Amino acid sequence: MLVSALILAALSALAAAAGHALLVRLAPRLTGRMGTVLAWACRLTLAAVFLAAAYGKLRDPYAFAVSIHAYRLVPPAWASVSAVVMPAVETVAAIALASGLLWRGGAVILGGLLAVFLVALSQAILRGIDIDCGCFGKGSSPVSFWLIARNYGLILCALLPLALDRLRAGRERAVLSAHEPLEPADR
Fold first, then answer.
1. Where exactly are the structural domains of the chain?
2. Got the DSSP string for 10-60?
3. Lowest-pLDDT range of 3-12, 85-94, 132-141
4. Contacts 24+ apart (CB under 8 A), 37-42
5. Which residues on adjacent β-strands are paired with residue 18?
């Protein structure tokens, strides 16, 4: 258990450092055409992953409810409700992200879900619970450090388009304010 905790801590620190480097150092250099392409690639990748995940969960909501309950985080009634609500939220957010309609909200929702999944996976590993993740419905991969690393990568896919959009908006405001006439000073 201690080894698992240390590996999780190291993986989290590595992911945080990589994410910081990507979002803070690399993102300002990617505000042009390459940034737009990268943002769209992240958005479409994340949307495709969540649409596939939602499809697998909606095919067998009972099996997904059993997977949720196996994490030992929520009572059985909440697991049943979550098994129906979660795929619906994933679908709506993924469509928003891919379509460009309210894509920022979709990115925030999917990033938040990934953070919740990250906590659930981590606690399962730390508690020694040997279960399938339920990520794509019935027959998903067993809980592992690989899934935690994958979730960190997907969180970056959710955050990168938001960071690039914010940088682009900041530069547009700076350009617009540079062209505004100066107000005469009060005398």
1. 33-168
2. HHHHHHHHHHHIIIIIIGGGG-SHHHHHHHHHHHHHHHHHHHHHHHHHHH-
3. 3-12
4. 38/160, 38/164, 39/160, 39/161, 39/164, 39/165, 40/161, 42/156, 42/157, 42/158, 42/160, 42/161
5. none
Binned at pLDDT 50, 70 and 90, residue 5 comes out as low
**128: three-class secondary structure by DSSP:** coil
What pTM does this model have?
0.78
Look up tokens 């196996």; give the residue.
Answer: 70
Q: Which of 18, 28, 43 lies closest to 158 in space, CA to CA? A: 43
Instruction: State the alpha helices, DSSP H only, in the chain.
Output: 2-20, 33-59, 61-70, 76-99, 103-127, 145-178
In which band, very low, low, confident or very high, does the pLDDT at 11 lie, cut at 50, 70 and 90?
low
Q: What pLDDT is stored for residue 106 in this prediction? A: 96
User: Cα–Cα distance between 19 and 63 in angstroms, integer?
Assistant: 34
**What residues pair up with 142 in beta bridges, in sequence order?**
132
CB 169 within 8 A of CB 35: no
Write out the two tokens for 101: 């309609």
Higher-confidence position of 124 and 177: 124
